[in-house]
Specification:
- By secondary structure, the chain is mostly helical.
- The protein has a single domain, classed as MetI-like fold (Orthogonal Bundle).
- Helices cover 77% and strands 0% of the residues.
- It is built from 14 helices and no strands.
- The longest helix is centred in the N-terminal third of the chain and has 36 residues, at 87-122.
- The termini are close together.
Length: 314
């Protein structure tokens, strides 16, 4: 087990280095001069040159990367061009808002979709199976922004049950914060449940065809015991991987939902920073999202042996 953990950790290190280099390079390809943007249109050439020296932009690209990477390792992601605020605290505070929505949504979607997919596989080719597969196909085909707008129209404007736009922190107001989370979380749950139902069904069908399932049935075990005690654990492995991928994707791609519901999360911060050409914040957001994705997938890999012990044996 220790060897498995160490191998996964060592595999993550080159990925983190490559991600850091990619993020650094992408920002350098964006048109515009950060020094000129920071000083404004009235800045003189000598002022811009002095600012470029202060920011290290007069050095070669490899030197700039080494300086930037060293600062990042010490927790210094730079300062925002727009409001002169430290990037790391700003990104972390916005990330916590996004993570709050995404984690709740993925957890609820998993609790609903995984049992539904298992039941669909158990009742293969029945009315129940066709209904669940058809529903899943429809759900994953609906664009999230359109679904979010429909939910806003129905529950916010027509029925008036939930607040339409805005955000309140659960730490400040538990009831109010939960009310503001209902619609964005519901949007993500409805969409991602479709993906997980299909994945859980496919992996369960594969397991149900194996010999040990036939042997368990021959021993006289009930269908529910065969399904949940013997099939579910082995079938959940691939679904667990999909849950990790969905979690990582949503953490980095929730900008659409945050824009629809005007939520001050990391995706919204990245969009606003792109329009403002706030390079340090854009770079900080990209790096934080990329590292979060790598970390989520690393945790998924490390926990995978709980569902399939053969992974460690290999």
């Amino acid at each position: 087990m220790l060897r498995f953990i160490l191998s996964r950790l060592l595999m993550a290190l080159p990925t983190i280095v490559l991600v850091s280099i990619t993020v650094f390079a992408l920002i350098r390809f964006i048109p515009g001069d950060p020094a000129a943007l920071m000083l404004g249109d009235m800045a003189q050439p000598d002022q811009i040159a002095a600012m470029r020296t202060e920011l290290g932009l007069d050095k070669s690209m490899p030197q700039q990367f080494v300086i930037w990477a060293g600062n990042v390792l010490h927790g210094d992601f730079g300062r925002s061009i727009v409001n002169d605020e430290a990037v790391l605290p700003l990104v972390v505070s916005r990330f916590m808002v996004s993570a709050e929505i995404v984690v709740i949504a993925v957890l609820l979607a998993s609790l609903i979709a995984v049992p539904a997919g298992v039941i669909a596989a158990w009742r293969q080719n029945s009315i129940t199976d066709l209904a669940l597969v058809g529903t899943a196909t429809v759900l994953l085909s609906i664009p999230t922004f359109w679904l979010g707008l429909l939910l806003l129209l129905l529950f916010g404007l027509k029925l008036g049950w939930l607040p339409v736009l805005g955000y309140v922190s659960i730490g400040d107001n538990v009831v109010g914060g939960l009310l503001y989370l209902v619609l964005p979380v519901m949007t993500l749950v409805i969409h991602e449940a479709g993906v997980l139902i299909r994945m859980a069904r496919a992996s369960t069908l594969e397991v149900l065809r194996l010999d040990y399932i036939t042997h368990a049935r021959a021993k006289g075990l009930s269908e529910s015991a065969v399904l949940w005690r013997h099939a579910f654990k082995n079938a959940f492995g691939p679904t667990w991987t999909m849950i990790g991928l969905i979690l990582g994707n949503l953490l980095g791609g929730i900008a659409v939902i945050e824009t629809v519901f005007t939520i001050p999360g990391l995706g919204r911060l990245m969009v606003d920073s792109i329009f403002a050409r706030d390079y340090p914040v854009i770079q900080g957001c990209l790096l934080f999202v990329s590292l979060s994705y790598v970390l989520v997938n690393l945790v998924v890999d490390l926990l995978y042996p709980l569902f399939d012990p053969r992974v460690v044996a290999e």
